[in-house]
């Protein structure tokens, strides 16, 4: 319990650790499918509080990390079109594409702007009417409403120089694909709090129903996560499988109605390619026809037609995202791959499992 002194609720954490020990009836592998959980678990040393035989592994919860290589390559190619400004969140700037990165393209003269909100990209389009501003719409259900608001704002302002390259993804479909794939036996799922404030905890009912796997929705404080792990281990001890919501202060059973209506207005379900998981049916969204003039794929279809195939890479981020490989098990970890010279997004993103392991778990 080497990090226990960092916790504000020290006695509660000690009590939870003892309770986990009493509940553990054998080996169990719990996957956390949220990048914020991944970083919190590493930062606070939560794995050191788990009973023997209970493992916590990372899944596909980092939106930057699961963005397909081809989608990043297309965004990079858009930056080479005349009078184009690329707008993106900061985590994406240093992610390696097949042959280059946004950081390198910016050094060569491409205009790359880091934004904190999709509406910042709308402002850029208003300020530069002679330029085409392309926002990289990355993220799960948490960030999707903000992109939808940006598209509606651009429509209201008649900003035809604002575009979105939409690569948003939906978490339940990825969880289903992981469980159906059977690559590893997952005993329980630590489910994301942020995403679930949008989609509601009932969105995960298929997990116990179709796969017999327990789950718990958790917040992001160490106590939140330990309470969720306790709920999962209790279900395993009971031989039960359900979805426990241990984050009721933020998460309801049903979706947020306003967010759901907004997403349905702007986006339609579509298939999407995930790094490490391939194409998952119904796991992405596309911009509806009513807003198609803001879709970069519609405006620049030739970019996708001209993309060369990606060369082989030593990066094993895809296996890390599936939980099949721990970051430290990658032969490149802390050698040819580190935060200064990353081989892939798992080492770059602030929610990446390799970045978390490098920063907090290296021996």
Protein described:
- This protein is an alpha/beta fold.
- It has one domain (1-363): 3-Layer(aba) Sandwich (Rossmann fold).
- It contains 16 helices and eleven strands.
- It has helices spanning 10-23, 35-43, 63-66, 69-78, 102-107, 118-127, 144-157, 171-181, 193-199, 206-211, 222-238, 257-266, 296-299, 301-305, 317-321, 353-360; strands at residues 28-32, 54-58, 84-88, 111-114, 132-137, 162-166, 188-191, 215-217, 243-245, 267-274, 278-287.
- Helix 7 (144-157) crosses helix 12.
Q: What is the CATH first-level class name?
A: Alpha Beta
Beta strands, count: 11
Give the low-pLDDT segments. Answer: 1-6
Strand order of the largest sheet: 2-1-7-8-9
Distance between the termini: 16 Å
The CATH fourth-level homologous superfamily: HypD, alpha/beta domain 2
Please give the share of residues in helix.
Answer: 25-40%
CATH topology: Rossmann fold
C-alpha geometry: globular
- Number of helices in the DSSP assignment: 16
Q: What is the number of independent domains?
A: 1
Rounded to an integer in angstroms, the radius of gyration calculated over CA atoms is 21 Å
What descriptive keywords fit this protein?
alpha/beta; five-stranded parallel beta sheet; 363 residues; four-stranded parallel beta sheet; 16 helices; 39% helix; disordered N terminus; Rossmann fold
